[in-house]
Specification:
Blueprint: E1 2-15, E2 19-26, E3 30-36, E4 55-61, E5 68-77, H1 80-84, H2 86-102, H3 110-124, H4 129-144, E6 162-166, E7 171-174, E8 185-186, H5 189-197, H6 213-230, H7 236-246
Parallel strand pairs: 3-5
Antiparallel strand pairs: 1-2, 1-4, 2-3, 4-5, 6-7, 6-8
Helix pairs in contact: 2-3, 2-4, 2-7, 3-4, 4-6, 5-6
């Protein structure tokens, strides 16, 4: 069956002497694998459209249970800046890697597609990359069924005097319950406000937010620890981001 869809390239791999296999995320079909024959060749009409992060119109032939075969494609947004800037590339790669590895074949939704599309654009527009990443991580937690409790104490249900975040227990803790997790992360008012906001916030409405360094440090600890405990995937792109942070690149 010939399919015509819009999509974002999540991953692009060389295959054989001149071909590429791309992992394509689409609103209608979810995540699909597509063979682009001859795309490795410099003069190929598919060379540009199969690059990572490319958002375009794709036409491919696909039968059920089989990999698609690319017929034609047109670029809507090339996202050159995301590939040319080291920091942008690393953070955009993390969004793409999460999407690619956490979705099964033909799994996804129009909403998640729009969140990814907006996230890539937000990074390219110079919005705070860490906030973009954390917001998208929260979408991934929701997809996986591990959305943390952030609007009340995960232990007793209290909505006031929230002081800590417990990745192990699955959410925030009030001051009276914080003893239940001795390694719970203390969060200030700014970090708590964002943790509450992320689950219901649409990436398409993200503005040029200004977040204090202390708040961002708390958020980073909360989100990375939660990801490691509940998702348990070793992310290549996040490792690279952490290396850049470690050496202040």
């Amino acid at each position: 069956m010939l399919r015509s869809v819009q999509g974002i390239v999540l991953r692009s791999m060389d295959y054989g002497e001149g071909n590429k296999i791309i992992s394509l995320f689409t609103p209608e079909l979810g995540k699909v694998g597509v063979m682009a024959r001859g795309a490795k060749k410099v003069k190929s009409r598919h060379a540009a459209v199969t690059q990572l992060f490319t958002y375009g119109d794709f036409v491919f032939f696909k039968t059920r249970g089989q990999m698609g075969s690319l017929n034609s494609a047109e670029i809507i947004e090339a996202h050159h800046a995301l590939r040319e800037d080291l920091h942008m590339s690393a953070h955009a790669s993390y969004l793409a890697e999460m999407t690619d590895r956490m979705l099964g074949d033909e799994e996804g939704s129009t909403y998640l597609f729009e969140q990814l599309k907006a996230g890539l654009m937000a990074i390219e527009e110079g919005k705070d990359m860490q906030i973009v990443v954390h917001l998208y991580e929260m979408k991934m937690f929701e997809l996986a069924g591990y959305l943390p409790v952030t609007d009340a104490c995960v232990s007793c249900g209290e909505t006031s005097d929230i002081t800590h975040f417990s990745p192990a227990m699955g959410g925030t803790l009030c001051n009276r319950c914080r003893y239940k997790d001795t390694v719970a992360i203390r969060v200030g008012e700014g970090a708590l406000k964002l943790l509450k906001l992320f689950p219901r916030m649409d990436m398409r409405r993200l503005g040029a937010v200004q977040v204090k360094d202390e708040t961002k440090a708390q958020l980073k600890t909360c989100m990375r620890t939660y990801m490691d405990i509940h998702i348990g995937v070793k992310w290549k792109s996040r490792d690279f981001i952490e290396q850049m942070e470690k050496y202040n690149i």
